[in-house]
Specification:
Elements: H1 15-32, H2 36-46, H3 49-59, H4 91-101, H5 115-124, H6 140-144, E1 148-151, E2 166-169, H7 171-177, H8 182-185, H9 218-235, H10 245-257, H11 262-268
Antiparallel strand pairs: 1-2
Helix pairs in contact: 1-2, 3-7, 4-9, 10-11
Bound molecules: zinc ion.
Zinc ion binds at residues 9, 105, 107-108, 110, 169-170, 172-173.
Length: 269
């Protein structure tokens, strides 16, 4: 009988991903120091075709890295009506997950970036950080580092929204597994390992664009409100849309919490 080895992840991240993370981190530092040209250039450099190929090899159809095996007595797929209602963690739960897991994938260790941060950078650098509807039009590094909140026992297999059942992951590890149980794809349980702690902050220190004030248009106000609440509840401890000293102080506390020195936090916030 052939056994499939138990692995930490489907396929190890390639070195170019670490290189791209360094370029993105430098891009945000350049941006915060006011060097928009350098920031733009670094963002473009991080968009490497080899990273897209790596991601496609895992989440694409018929991936050689994702192989299913039958596990006796595994939970069957539950019909929609039998599943637990709330699917994704709330903004506050996501905050707790990042406090616990940091900004690395719990399976493969890849640095991750929240969608909200990506959207803010894309707003400031629409030419360098493209994010169209189709995969091919999306910035490859942001795509592979896209933070996910993955159910260990998949929702479709009866998994709950309890935070013990949810981990921060990258796109490949989340979408590659689909609705399979860990045992079915030969992955070890990432909860048995400590989360990675590093100076990678998920580019959270980027906050270039003050949120626009709500205008009279109803739709615009709700978009701004949603964005404001989500961003603020995650980073700032206060619900505010203006860039106040209070927010900057909260932001500095956050940066220190994720590993920056007091000096560094002062410089960027
Ligand atoms: Zn991963």
């Amino acid at each position: 009988m052939r056994h499939t080895a138990i692995r930490l992840c489907f396929r190890e991240p390639i070195p170019e991903i670490a290189e791209a993370a360094r370029l993105l981190d430098d891009a945000v530092s350049a941006h915060l120091s006011g060097d928009v040209k350098a920031a733009e250039q670094l963002l473009l450099e991080a968009n490497m075709p080899v990273i897209r190929a790596w991601l496609d090899s895992i989440w694409g159809a018929n991936s050689p890295y994702v192989q299913y095996r039958v596990v006796p007595n595994a939970h069957p797929v539950i019909p929609n009506e039998g599943r637990i209602k709330v699917r994704m963690p709330s903004a506050e739960e996501k905050q707790r997950l990042h406090q616990r897991d940091g900004f690395h994938c719990r399976f493969c260790g890849m640095p991750v970036i929240r969608k909200e941060i990506r959207q803010r950078i894309a707003k400031a650098y629409p030419d360098a950080l493209q994010w169209g509807r189709q995969n091919i039009t999306q910035h490859a590094a942001f795509q592979s580092m896209w933070a996910q909140y993955d159910h260990i026992v998949p929702h479709a297999r009866g998994g709950t929204n309890d935070l013990n059942n949810v981990v921060v992951t990258c796109a490949a590890c989340n979408f590659g597994r689909m609705n399979y149980l860990l045992e079915e794809v030969g992955l070890s349980d990432p909860r048995l390992r400590e989360p990675i702690r590093s100076s990678w902050d998920g580019l959270e220190r980027f906050r270039a664009i003050p949120l626009r004030k709500p205008t009279r248009g109803k739709d615009q106000a709700s978009v701004v409100g949603r964005d404001g609440i989500e961003i603020n509840s995650f980073l700032y401890e206060v619900v505010e849309k203006e860039d106040t000293e209070e927010m900057r102080a909260a932001h500095r506390r956050w940066l220190i919490k994720i590993g920056l020195s007091e000096e560094e936090a002062k410089r960027v916030s």
